[in-house]
TrEMBL record:
Annotated Glycoside hydrolase family 31 TIM barrel domain residues: 354-682
The family this protein is said to belong to: Belongs to the glycosyl hydrolase 31 family.
Location(s) in or outside the cell: Endoplasmic reticulum
Region of interest called Disordered, as start-end residue ranges on this chain: 110-134
GO molecular function: carbohydrate binding; Glc2Man9GlcNAc2 oligosaccharide glucosidase activity; glucan 1,3-alpha-glucosidase activity
Pathway: Glycan metabolism; N-glycan metabolism
Keyword terms of this UniProt record: Coiled coil, Endoplasmic reticulum, Glycoprotein, Glycosidase, Hydrolase, Signal
One Pfam family, short name: Gal_mutarotas_2
Chain segments annotated as coiled-coil in the UniProt record: 177-205
Domain named Glycosyl hydrolase family 31 C-terminal: residues: 690-779
Protein name stated in the entry: Glucosidase II subunit alpha
Cellular component terms per the entry's GO annotation: endoplasmic reticulum lumen; glucosidase II complex
GO biological process, one term: fungal-type cell wall beta-glucan biosynthetic process
Length: 924
């Protein structure tokens, strides 16, 4: 399988990418890194200490500019906002713009668009710079604003960690009137040499651009923004999803050896049969980059939803990145922190954290394009039970509708959707239907008619409703910039309106890049018009998120804000995490796609969207038995777990394979269900701090350089290390277990011995899933096997304790009703377990977000279950004399089994999770 690359642009086929890359090349060729045409006018600098706000005028002069189309002098406004978190936001725009108002996406993308400014700021000025030192006493950040050439640098502990325009690539195309003489004459073209060609390229496709058969009219001319961001001292940078490249980003200007030749592209696209290890754009875009070295992390965010290209260049010590956006605002944030977690939490405070999902959403989902009819759905459901395979949700793809008219049912196949959902609900399960954003042009289709009558569709460049081609044929797309449009979509989810929908029906939104089969690069023309005459080019990368948001709000509204929505989206942007989950799109039943699912989900996760997964088995084609098993074994340790396949792929429910496969898939699924209490606690943590549930190794071991490029093993939370088997026919595997910790085999609870460097090699059979528990951790589990997460709701818990070198451990446990927002009013249980001095202590977890912890005990009784088992590994078990539970001064002696010299299992302490301040004492 292979993408048709020629259907998608390369940088040299994109006008602004060519212009910006040529500008950077000119700087390099002419050695003018220090001759940037932008300079800050010193006496224009104004500092508002209360708001942490620095403003200044910046002048661009033509005489030393590399771009000879620029007028003599242009003025700009610069804003720098120093934030309490140690971050810096920077905005830059034309001082006057009579041509077009640049689109400000920040109000849509950021949850907190006005983060708290720093209150403590010291300033110092010299001839060519101003220095601002801010943040609290213990942790100081310094910003240096250099006037000529204009430069911004962020300094931590005396070292520059991020720089803007250190390399002189800053090139902001201010709006300008088209001038007939702008084009270079033919004679000039004749005497092309390398430099002239670059100069020419800096003028390319300014006023219109044609790709294949589509012409983009660009009525506002060139307006792109290019600049360099340097990370001195950092060899590894991560993020800027969505791509199929390794976790640690690859260089992009290497002319073939070791690296890419193309910049990473961010432009939400429906790419049929996407290729691996490529900087090509696919469905989602998050212009967030993380840089990390052993004693420092840094982050960078470009709040801009237009098409973007990013070059990454590395030297032995530093990383230089070159950001190029087609239009929109210059609005960037620099983040600094000691560790990746520090940077992510600061970023997530601004971009917004994911809400706590419903409990069922964290379990296993079964999908296919398509489950054909009611009988098919009921039979699949019944077979899961017959084979004792747990699952929570059954999904219906586009064929369930009446001719791809979303919000309707094909009544010949699904004559009674309400009864069908009732049958599914009776088993404690849920259903999901797909609702795509393209709306069939059909005056007899009420959804189309309503939207058309209210003029809610995106317009074409002639300002008439845009008509393109997608699954239903001729279609239109709702314009979510129009306030009435979101309201209208929200109302479509009303149970009265969406006939055949019930309370257990949730939503999958697909094709929301948006995918337009007849459009340039299978998407919407850039000169289409949104509400307020905003061009589609300015909005493109957030379109899918706006649809996600309105769908989320539709679900909230249909149950009066009483039920947590579950919405899966394919396209995404900064902030999409606030509205639900995403998946990695149309992958292939191929070992390399299984491998790629790890860096892909980790990279999306560290960019904010941690509720993410890949289609199990691969969407296209047919996985053989081995790949199918290995995929389940990997995916159950990723945040979103769904089996899905293409309409032309063979049916592949587990019972269609042999007995061994069914058994191993069942075992893998139970690994997920056993750990749901741990996962749910991690989802809670993510909703409070933004830290992803699954993490690159370097998140947990930020000082261990060996881990900076590792993307074939990962951490689930802080405590489980997963090293999936990713090779066909693999008979042994080598795992790196950071030597700073003690490690346990998650299944046997035995301490594992690595070699001195930390490597462990183990044989692998088809049933092997290499998972290790970190010494010092306590993991909550539920070990009774049932048909769905709901049927486990009243099951008791097991605590799995693995002691560290000091014989200590700690962990958290969170639970609530799994459905409502009652947790916001204290309806939850959040516990901290600490094991030290041979005592296991349980206390209330004081969550950092100051949630009101006034419990409503009546409600809690319904969700409080007992602990039925405590397993302690790494303990001196031989000489234990007795074990006792102490609650409110009452002592009860407990039964226990010594499993081996260092494992003891305490039997049924029968203490409820809602109890606090109890302890279990081990007596010698
Ligand atoms: C494309 C999606 O990526 C895929 O998951 C889905 O099955 C098809 N569209 C049909 O809806």
């Amino acid at each position: 399988m292979c993408v048709k690359s020629e259907e998608f642009k390369r940088c040299d086929q994109s006008g602004f990418c060519t212009r910006q890359r040529a500008y950077a090349d000119l700087v390099e060729k002419t050695n003018t890194q220090n001759a940037s045409p932008y300079k800050v006018i010193p006496n224009s600098i104004d500092f508002n200490k209360k708001e942490g706000l620095i403003t200044a005028k910046v002048l661009k002069t033509a005489n030393n500019t590399l771009d000879n189309a620029t007028p003599l002098e242009v003025y700009f406004k610069l804003q720098l906002i120093l934030l309490k978190s140690g971050s810096v936001r920077m905005k830059f725009e034309e001082a006057e713009d009579n041509i077009k108002t640049r689109f400000d996406v920040s109000t849509y993308a950021l949850e907190n668009n006005n983060p708290e400014p720093s209150k403590k700021i010291d300033t110092k000025n010299d001839q060519n710079s101003s220095t601002f030192t801010f943040n609290d006493e213990n942790d100081k950040t310094t910003l240096i604003l250099t006037y000529n050439p204009f430069k911004v640098e962020i300094v931590k502990d005396g070292q520059v960690v991020i720089g803007f325009n250190q390399n002189g690539y800053f090139n902001y195309e201010e709006h300008q009137q088209q001038n007939e003489n702008d084009n270079i004459s033919e004679e000039e073209k004749q005497r092309q040499n390398e430099i002239n060609e670059l100069i020419e390229n800096t003028q390319k496709d300014m006023w219109s651009e044609t790709f294949r058969s589509s012409t983009d009219t660009k009525p506002y001319g060139p307006e792109s923004i290019g600049f360099d961001i340097t990370f001195p001292g950092f060899k590894n940078v991560y993020g800027i999803p969505q791509h199929t490249s390794p976790l640690s980003l690859t260089t992009t200007r290497n002319n073939g050896d070791n690296g890419y030749n193309e910049p990473y592209r961010l432009y939400n696209l429906d790419v049929f049969e996407y290729i691996l290890d490529s900087p090509m754009a696919i469905y989602g875009s998050i212009p967030f980059m993380l840089a990390h070295k052993n004693d420092q992390s840094a982050g960078f965010l470009f709040i801009n939803a237009s098409e973007m290209w990013i070059d990454v260049e590395k030297s032995n010590t530093d990383t230089l990145t070159h950001w190029m956006a087609e239009s929109g605002k210059f609005d960037i944030i620099f983040f600094v922190g000691k560790t990746p977690k520090d940077v992510i939490t600061t970023y997530m405070d601004i971009a917004g954290k994911p809400p706590l999902p419903q409990y069922f959403a964290t379990a296993y989902h079964q999908c296919r394009w398509n489950y054909n009819d009611e009988a098919d759905v009921l039979s699949v459901d019944q077979k899961f039970d017959e084979y004792n395979l747990p699952y929570d949700v059954i999904w219906l793809d586009i064929e369930h509708t009446d001719g791809k008219r979303y919000f309707t049912w094909d009544l010949t196949k699904f004559p009674d959707p309400v009864a069908l959902q009732k049958a599914i609900a009776d088993k404690g399960r849920k259903m999901v239907t797909i609702i795509d954003p393209h709306i069939k042009v059909d005056n007899n289709y009420y959804v189309y008619k309503e939207a058309k009558d209210q003029d809610l569709f995106v317009h074409n460049n002639q300002d008439k409703p845009f008509d393109g081609w997608c699954w239903p044929g001729s279609s239109s797309w709702v314009d979510f910039l129009k306030p009435e449009a979101s309201k209208w979509l929200i109302s479509q989810y009303d149970f009265e309106k969406y006939k055949g929908s019930t309370e257990i029906l949730y939503t999958w939104i697909d094709m929301n890049e948006p995918s337009v089969f007849s459009g340039p690069e299978t998407t919407m023309p850039k000169d289409n018009l949104h509400y307020g005459k905003v061009e589609h080019r300015d909005v493109h990368n957030i379109y899918g998120e706006l649809y996600h948001k309105a769908t989320y709000e539709g679900h909230l509204a249909r149950r009066n804000n009483e039920d947590r929505p579950f919405i899966l989206s394919r396209a995404f942007f900064i902030g999409s995490q606030r509205y639900g989950a995403i998946w990695t799109g149309d992958n292939d039943a191929d070992w390399n796609h299984l491998k790629a699912s790890i860096p892909m989900t980790l990279s999306i996760g560290l960019s904010g969207l941690s509720f993410c997964g890949a289609d199990i088995g691969g969407f296209f084609n047919n996985p053989d038995k081995e790949l199918y098993i290995r995929w389940y074994q990997t995916a159950v340790f990723q945040p979103f777990v769904r089996g899905h396949s293409h309409i032309d792929a063979k049916r592949r429910e587990p019972w269609l394979y042999d007995d061994e496969t069914i058994n191993l898939v069942r075992d893998a699924l139970y690994e997920r269900y056993n750990l749901l209490p741990y996962w749910y606690t991690l989802f809670k943590e993510a909703s409070v701090s933004g830290i992803p549930m699954t993490r690159p190794m370097f998140f947990e071991f930020p000082e261990n350089e060996k881990l900076f490029e590792v993307d074939n093993q990962f951490m689930v939370g802080s405590d489980l290390l997963v090293k999936p088997v990713l090779e066909q026919g693999q008979t042994e595997i080598s795992v790196y277990l950071p030597p700073s910790e003690k490690w346990y085999d998650y299944k046997t609870h035995k301490v594992v011995q690595t070699n001195e460097e930390g490597y462990l090699t183990i044989p692998t059979s088809l049933s092997t899933i290499p998972v290790y528990q970190r010494g010092g951790s306590i993991i909550p589990q539920r070990l009774r096997h049932r048909r769905s997460s709901k049927s486990m709701k009243h099951d008791p818990y097991t605590l799995l304790i693995a002691l560290d070198e000091k014989n200590e451990a700690k962990g958290q446990f969170y639970v609530d009703d799994g459905e409502s927002f009652g947790y916001k009013n204290g309806l939850f249980i959040y516990r901290t377990f600490i094991f030290a001095n041979n005592i296991l202590n349980c206390s209330k977890y004081r969550s950092p977000d100051n949630i009101n912890e006034s419990h409503n005990e009546d409600e809690l009784l319904m969700i409080s279950e007992r602990i039925e088992r405590v397993i302690i590994a790494g303990i001196d078990s031989k000489s234990i004399k007795s074990i006792q539970l102490v609650t409110n001064g009452v002592v009860k002696s407990l039964q226990f089994n010594v499993e081996s010299d260092d494992i003891v299992i305490i039997k049924d302490p029968a203490i409820e999770m809602k109890e606090v301040d109890w302890k279990i004492e081990i007596l010698y």
